[in-house]
Amino acid sequence: MARIEHPGGEGGVAPSLGRAAAAAAAAAQNPQPSAPMSTALIFLFAFAAGAAVANIYYVQPLIGLIGPDIGLSPVLASLMVTFTQLGYAAGLVLLVPLGDLVENRSLVVLTLLAVSASLAISAVAGSEPAFFAAALTLGCCAVVAQMLVPFAATLSPEAQRGATVGIVISGVMTGILLARPIASLIADFAGWRAVFGLAAILMVLLAGLLRWNLPIRRPAGGFAYWHLIASLWPVWRDTAILRRRALYQAAMFAAFSLFWTTVPLLLASPAFGWSQRGIAVFALAGAAGALISPVAGRIADRGWTKPATGVALFLVIFSFAIAAVGAVVNSIAILVVAAVLLDVGCILNLVLGQRAIYVLGPEIRSRLNALYMATTFLGGAVGSAIASAVYFHGGWIAASCAGAAFGVIASLYYAGEFFRPRPA
């Protein structure tokens, strides 16, 4: 076992997983990059990651349309979001670690084709079980976005790794935030099934684009898939910074998912009476928060992770206080400000966390990312699972209090950083 220090002062233990001969072979095949990645390649990674992850968010603004069509009650409608997020968490554990075992470009391309097939099934699903099965599979395969992030980090030299990760995460978050307005606009013109059908076509085209432009990367490997999955527990158990950053982000993403699952219901309610097109415009305004990602990467590169984490947590709590006021006074402008602040806080914390864990060792980078994002999306699944019930039984104020509570829980855990002894 080797002690690994986090640059910001947090320590963790990362297990030595793999034999020296395999590591030497990997180093020969995949030398540490000395030159920055081209701008075009970085933005290709960002676009691909964003387009892939968007697939699990198309359903959020459409639950009011899909639910009646497949026979689902309004109180249970948010389970459509929960199923995709649970599938995503499963895919993070079962598929993303393959980035440490098999050739990365082929893995990305094949997984994108599986995403396309799942989207096609969603587009033609005619019943609740069929749609839920497709949603679960779609979420599981959409983790290709989280295969691309450590892939890009590995290709980038250490000095620019935070900035590169920030740009790729910016693509991920842009995909998440634009998925809702895009889905709403397409559904307004052509129905909700067209959303999934067009996305299936896009994934096939994207698979071809990546097949011809991504470099080949063969990790060390040297062990069986079962050993790869079994190694996840030691990585989680022995890496303190991974656990801490993952639990921060799980609470943040629970708040994020709760907000974006319930706000379309608020906007469509008699208080505002917005159509799908109006909801799309609102979601587009909230997407401005994605601009923080490259800045967050540079903040992490400068070693300001701990204070920036406190800022991120405060922004999430404050955003729900503003959101509650916006609903009381029926102000769209205040709700937009709340949405932007929430997105900024969540994205800032996400990038800070990924930059922190990516310094722990390239040979386990995919597994670190898998555990980090799986914990994050489990938190998101909790937030979306309770969203409809909280909103329908307690209204927007109850939903705002629940979202703020997730931020408070993360802040209490964060306070422990200032009372722990620093590692030797």
CATH architecture: Up-down Bundle
Q: Can you tell me the CATH superfamily?
A: MFS general substrate transporter like domains
Distance between the termini: 16 Å
Query: Largest beta sheet: what is the strand line-up?
Result: 1-2
CATH class: Mainly Alpha
Number of helices: 17
Order of helices and strands: EEHHHHHHHHHHHHHHHHH
Strand count, sense and closure of the main sheet?
2 strands, antiparallel
Estimate the strand proportion: under 5%
Cα shape:
globular
Spans of at least 5 consecutive residues with low confidence: 1-31
Structural class: mainly alpha
Q: What count of domains describes the coordinates?
A: 1
Q: Give the tally of β-strands.
A: 2
Average pLDDT, rounded to a whole number, is 82
The share of residues in helices is: over 70%
Please tell me how large the radius of gyration is. 21 Å
The CATH topology is given as Growth Hormone, Chain: A
What do these coordinates show?
This protein has one domain: MFS general substrate transporter like domains (Growth Hormone, Chain: A, Up-down Bundle). Helices cover 75% and strands 2% of the residues. It contains 17 helices and two strands. It has helices at residues 20-29, 39-54, 63-70, 79-94, 104-124, 128-141, 144-155, 158-190, 192-213, 225-230, 232-238, 240-268, 276-286, 292-301, 305-328, 332-357, 365-415; strands at residues 2-5, 11-14. A two-stranded antiparallel ribbon has the order 1-2. A hairpin with a 5-residue loop joins strand 1 and strand 2 (11-14). The protein is globular.
